[in-house]
Amino acid sequence: MSTPKATSNSAKALSALRSVATTVAMVVTVLAAVAVFATGSPLSDTAPQLDARAMDGRPVRLADFSGKPVVLYFWATWCTACKLTSPTVDGFASRNPEVPVLAVAADDLATVRAYLAGEERAFTVVADGEAIIQRLGIRAFPTTAIVDGAGKVIWTRQGVLLPGELDLRMP
Length: 171
What we know:
The chain is of the alpha/beta class and 171 residues long. The protein has five helices and seven strands, in the order αβββαβαβαββα. The longest helix has 35 residues, at 4-38.
């Protein structure tokens, strides 16, 4: 039979152990997040050459938007994080029709058409996405970038966007 003092010491030891475990878990989480974001985006400071077609056949060239900021959104139909981010990007595009938002999908055109069937999007979906993503070396989905009016990449994010984040980052 344990004494009240022994029970009290055991409770204190257990509490201290929980505190240490919580601290270690937080440090590991922070280090993992830093490792993900430290890898950065494969996009350089200069905007990538983008000469493609929208899903409706219109030509889409990043150079045509010179003088205004552009949002580039790289995504995939199979990507769970993209399914969380797409409504945020679409909401931004709806609220800011003067800002071009180009969504470049990692899937073939038929897959993207089937995925988006019956859904209206405020952003422009680029049809030649597979080749563009491969050429740019995009490996993490979603990846979102803001290109300023001078053609410089001023911000990138790999992973889920928070609601309103694009609004805060826009020049």
